[in-house]
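Notes from the 1:1 (GR / supervisor)

We went over the backlog. Supervisor wanted to see one worked example end to end before approving the batch request, so GR pasted a single chain during the call. The sequence is below; no edits were made to it. Supervisor asked that the structure be written out right there so they could see what the output format looks like.
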Amino acid sequence: MDEPRYWLALSLVQGIGPVKTRALIEHFGTLQLAWQAAPSELQQAGLDKRALKNLLDAREQIDVEREWARLQRSHSQMLTWNDAAYPARLKEIEDAPPALYVRGELSAADEYAVAIVGTRLATTYGKEVTRGLAGDLARNRITIISGLARGIDLIAHEAALEAGGRTIAVLGSGVDVIYPPEARRLSEQIVTRGALISEYPLGTRPEASNFPPRNRIISGMSLGVVVVEAGLDSGALITAGFALEQGRDVFAVPGNVFNKSSQGTNRLIQQGAKLVMSFEDVLDELQLQRVAEHQQTREVIPEDETERVLWDALSQEPIHVDELRRQLDLPISTISSTLIVMELKGLARHVGGMNYIRAQ
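Structure output shown during the call:
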């Protein structure tokens, strides 16, 4: 099917974001038809003059098959709203990226994710707190999400890996353009124990304007955001703001009132962020105390092909077993027995009336 190629092509067009992508899908049904449509039809679909010009110019310049081949060669993949592997929690936010570029692998374990962010100018205190929080959460099977920036972010990723856990880095560049340069070795380690992800196409340089929007992805993939150290103008506060808009919990580590790196975090606490003194504060607030137990159960009972297809079919919207049977063309007895096993593993949850959802 050619449709994924056109999701890739549209992701290369400036000015075609979530809102316009939805409009194109609603009008044309597929992005392939949108890509091939006449200018008058694109205007009818809601494209303004600038977006229309950008799209028409892109159609002249972009070789769709060549771009698709380039993606395949890059050892990366692209996930779209149509893909079951697209992060379910991120898809819930209003401005979820239509396409995500991924190096590494996202996992069902990443349902249980907490973001740890903070200043690039971390103090010794901030570094030690970050190392302790990230390491302890990772040991409790919580995926650590951050932005691969100097300071708090890099330490959070490092500590998660050192603890044997998973970590995801959300980039303000293409997944093939690592910034800062000193993070290259760490980024390769992250690929083996998590993923590098970005909404920006391959080859995108780390422009300053890219970083604030990427912060909505950090918070959007997380159950909560922990801000360790942040000045009053820190990008970490932007992440906290997105988290509040998205209905995520915001946590902050208190700091020295005389230190500029703590002014933002202390202000967050004044405004209602949950004060964090240890990793238990995060686990308790998010009710994640039994995550390690769920993850261990998943490892004890291997997943098979039936579980995989059922997992792909489940979402946060309840679905009846009869609908699963219709979609998957499997015997109802197979579906029912597999769902029982998946409940034991923490992969699925029965919500009444023979309806099931993915477990959180």
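Supervisor's comment: The chain is about 50% helix and 15% strand.
Batch request approved.
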